[in-house]
Amino acid sequence: MLAAIYVYGIDNLVVEIDNEEVPIMDGSAKNFLENLSKVKLISQSKKRKYLNIINKVELVDGERKISIEPNHASFEIDFQLNYKNQIIGKQKNTVNLNKDNIADITKSRTFCLHEDIEKIKKAGLAKGGSLDNAVVVGEKEIFNKEGLRNDKEFVNHKILDLAGDFFLSGYRIFGKVKCHQGGHELTNLFLRSLFQKNKHKISVVELDNIDISEISKDEYTPLAVNA
């Protein structure tokens, strides 16, 4: 949901949830964007606040690593996965959210290994999980009959996750993020470190609207809105 709000260009809204968590929908941002495209947006006069990266910041946690460095007037994500599973394998993609067409990113679903399903459910998680809202990957096959939505759906979903996680900072971002083997937990740790220990390496700037990237010519008509 947060990633959909970010890429659609919305900064000012109230979200009401009548349960314990945000609905998973189809496991991607697709349904959220479809609904956002049906509502009228209001352009406001106040300038947007952007988190601007002055110097590179990096966090290493074992085999996991994430960093952000200056990248003028755009938010770029370079993400790499490295799974032993032969279907997922080593996937890498780099996307600039201000310049690239990100239709594949917004449609990419969350995924899990078939062997991990029982562990996840025993932990009380993914109670509503099904093939309708997640890609389930076996040792040699994908259990979803329709297959993948794009060739890099696994890493593309991770990029979608990261975009939403960074919006939790309260700002849009000017910087290039490089992430290796990351996820929600690592991004959360990184943002905490960024604001608590690296304040001198970041600044907040107010600017008129910077265009967001093209989501999809056919399905959505995004309108950028100043907050």
State the main characteristics.
alpha/beta; about 230 residues; lpxc deacetylase, domain 1; about 25% strand; 7-stranded mixed sheet; two-stranded parallel sheet
Please explain how this structure is put together:
This protein starts with a helix and ends in a 20-residue tail after the last strand. Helix 1 (2-8) packs across helix 5 and helix 5 (153-167) runs parallel beside helix 6. Helix content is 24%, strand content 23%. The chain has one domain: lpxc deacetylase, domain 1, CATH 3.30.1700.10. It is built from six helices and nine strands. It is globular and about 50 Å long. Strands 1, 2, 3, 4, 5, 8 and 9 form a seven-stranded mixed beta sheet that branches. Strands 6-7 form a two-stranded parallel ribbon.
Topology pattern, helix = H, strand = E: HHEEEEEHEHEHEHE
Provide the gyration radius in Å: 18 Å
* CATH architecture designation: 2-Layer Sandwich
CATH topology type:
lpxc deacetylase, domain 1
Task: Look at the structure and give the CATH class.
Answer: Alpha Beta
Structural class: alpha/beta
- By DSSP, the count of extended strands is 9
Mean pLDDT: 90
Shape: globular
* CATH homologous superfamily heading: lpxc deacetylase, domain 2
Helix content: 10-25%
Low-confidence stretches: 221-227
Task: State the separation between the terminal residues, measured CA to CA.
Answer: 18 Å
| Number of separate helices | 6
The oligomeric state of the chains shown is: single chain
Largest sheet: number of strands, sense, barrel closure: 7 strands, mixed
Q: Percent of residues in beta strands?
A: 15-25%
Q: Number of domains in the coordinates?
A: 1
